[in-house]
């Protein structure tokens, strides 16, 4: 790409002029000169001046519209649930500080909501902005807030705690680190620019002040928008297409599966959702020893295009009864895609919206990498729990993954204009 970092630098045009300045002669190659000319336009001096200037364009043409994409904060459902998956994400849980209660929580949620509104609009933070994202647009930034089970006791609101927020049952495959699980408050940040995402993370952490401290934080990523020739379902770090059968907002029963209805119980959760967060480590060294065919049998789908092993394309309905020439099931009985299907779990459905993660390597070179599993549902007891119980009993994928952290949070509806997230709970 042409170097445009010095658009107003004086550029000699002939060898005689170059001889007088060794630094200039060595520092500006012909390729750079021509590249700069092509990128910005070259203005030649009149009357044999022999000197040209790489002029700034009157109005720069943006490389892409990606940074300009803005998502509204004050909406019916909090942003970051049905928002298309972003390239960068941060998940962070906070615990209220010792002595902090409902009053401090109200002030904190007010600060956080205002900061989120400003940053999602591409504006600087309210106080002490770090200027990290000064040159960027909103970049599809979303900030989503939720409350953990422990938040209600800390704020004297136990009677308003939803039954759906009861702790998740234990699963045999769990190897949970309590220090990286649960929390009073949960924040999800997503953006299509890493600096924009970090800027939001830092601003919210500073906003917490003396009211709350970070309990845990996880960083994730997805494929960048525009990286593929056409829109397609994302792949995870196992190389598998992941999310083919996700519920879609266009489906008639989407809202009842994903959101708490108005007039539901409790009333302050109207238009909200419940999110299950799991840090799932992928045992990639073991997985990558399998042949592609063996990997496909574990999942029940072709690796190349995500199509079911029973045939068709990615979105073709899986034929669970189809057999091969020997009479065996084409989709193995313990294949992940078979076991996790809603029609195999009493209609249980959840909206998966994960991030991949990589946190380096263990001392023996084993990668600490996998999936920050984030799933949304109107009731986790009818969404995540029955599916995970069934997977726990015989999923072919289980030997290749390990659940290392977990959390369940109540995510209320969007903040009203001039209000803040959780206002109906904290002031109701």
TrEMBL record:
Its main location: other. It catalyses: heme b + 2 H(+) = protoporphyrin IX + Fe(2+). The keyword Oxidoreductase applies. Residues 233-414 form the Dyp-type peroxidase C-terminal domain. PROSITE patterns: DYP_PEROXIDASE, TAT. It holds the Pfam family Dyp_perox_N. Binds 1 heme b (iron(II)-protoporphyrin IX) group non-covalently per subunit. It comes from the Bacteria. Residues 78-222 form the Dyp-type peroxidase N-terminal domain. Belongs to the DyP-type peroxidase family. This is Deferrochelatase. The gene is efeB.
